[in-house]
Amino acid sequence: MRLSRYFLPILKENPKEAEIVSHRLMLRTGMVRQQSQGIYSWLPLGKKVLDKVNAIIREEQNRAGAIEILMPTLQSAELWQESGRYEAYGKEMLRITDRQDRPMLYGPTNEEMVTDIFRSYVKSYKNLPLNLYHIQLKFRDEIRPRFGTMRSREFMMKDAYSFDMTMEDAVHSYNKMFAAYLRTFDRLGLRAIPMQADTGPIGGNHSHEFIILAETGESEVFSHRDFVNFDIPPADVDFDDVAGMQAIFDKWTSVYAATSEMHDEAAFAAVPEADRLSARGIEVGHIFYFGTKYSEPMGAKVQGPDGKEHLVHMGSYGIGPTRLVPAIIEASHDDNGIIWPESVAPFDCVVINMKTGDEACDAACEKIYAELMKAGKDVLYDDTTGGAGAKFATADLIGVPMQIIAGPRSVANGEVELKVRKTGARETMTIEAAINRLLA
Q1: Distance between CA atoms of 146 and 137, rounded to whole angstroms?
Q2: H or E stretch including 54?
């Protein structure tokens, strides 16, 4: 993509309304635009990152055996009345009425709707286990939306829902999602700590929040330092291995970790002082096992091997992609801007033409741009007529992992400079060597 033709509305000054680093940088880089309180448009740069986050989430959900569907954002109030949550959910639910005066709502979550889908089609234990997920916009009328898309009213959610014959089977489904979440966050460049958590309005009796540590976190969290050294499940992990999944869960819950709502001072005091970690945290995922909380009032049953009907055991598993993007920024930035992990960077590299209009510089940049694009790399080519300093500042601000810098002097020698955004390391090499380095 040529920057001269791209929509990248960079802000030179820090927006006054931005309270935290990620909100400030997302506005400055033109990733998002606030449309009203807690509601944002995702502009091209932000949408590219969001799509890459979603792609990793999808890959890991599919790897763990979940199956993607798509449910509507608007839901009938009847389903929520059937489950008993319509009045209980509170003012965060946006309730509306259609032209036939039927009560509707903008879904904050989808337990009721997915249970209705399940009970309409699945009648036998032979069709279990089943895990259905989707990635969809949701709405919760937060009393105080803040921190940009970190805590917005409209947000994107990956929510998965498992259905199992027995509690034991449901625990295995829970453990599979637990392992899949560890892999997902690791691929996003984050070290997420699973912590015992309150179940909130979702309900249930078994719940973990996945927390990344950050100074701008919403709440205080408490954990053992050993988490930083625990191994992430490998790509070839066997999700059907019941004992293996349980072992991963047991390992990652073997030492103390809890959100402030579930904090136990006595248990934390038992942790050796040198191993205690008290910090602010950002929730990036939340998983629940809630048994028959929804299947019982909504009649979601299957015929078991004994010929009798049994209520299915359910769980739900959420990840917020529009929350993950700022969380990644909070975890990876410096004074000059964002430092994207390669897995979610909006572009693989940026080619910086230090003197657009110079015949030699233009020719070198066009060659690099064409060859990298032909090889399948996602390249941003800064072919604008601005000064070199402004171009360097933009490249650092938007955080693309690699920068190829072509100036008159270096190009005259058949060379360019390669800069690693994360470390700032620079190396001069031939044009061909630079291309080969990025294709390696």
Answers
A1: 18
A2: helix 44-63
Tokens at 104, concatenated: 């509707």
Q: What is the pLDDT of residue 178?
A: 97
Residues contacting residue 163 through CB under 8 Å, at least 6 positions apart: 118, 122, 128, 129, 130, 131, 132, 300, 312, 313, 314
- Residue 369 is predicted with a pLDDT of 97
Element (H, E) at 61: helix 44-63
Residue 231 CA to chain centroid, in angstroms?
A: 20
**Average pLDDT along the chain:** 95
Higher pLDDT, 220 or 321: 321
Closest CA to 417 of 384, 391, 386, 385: 391
Which tokens in the block code for residue 128? 């279990």
- What does the DSSP 8-state code read for residue 64? T
Residues 6+ apart with CB under 8 A from 72: 107, 113
Handedness of CA 352, 358, 361, 366 (dihedral sign): positive
**What b-and-e string marks burial along 81-120, b requiring 16 or more CB atoms within 10 Å of the CB?**
ebbebbeeeeeebbeeeeeeeeebbbbbbbbbbbbbbbbe
Reading the block at residue 95, the tokens are 């309730």
Residue whose entry in the numeric block shows the structure tokens 């969809």: 136
Q: In whole angstroms, how far apart are CA 401 and each of 173, 307, 340, 377? A: 36, 59, 6, 13
The residue among 189, 177, 188, 180 whose CA lies nearest residue 60 is 180
Query: In the structure encoding, which two tokens stand for residue 282, read together?
Result: 């950002």
Tokens 């309304």 correspond to what residue? 17
φ, ψ at 221 (rounded to 5°): -130, 160
Is the preceding peptide bond at 326 cis, omega within 30 degrees of 0?
no
Question: Which pTM was predicted?
Answer: 0.95
**How many Å apart are CA 167 and CA 116, to the nearest integer?**
20
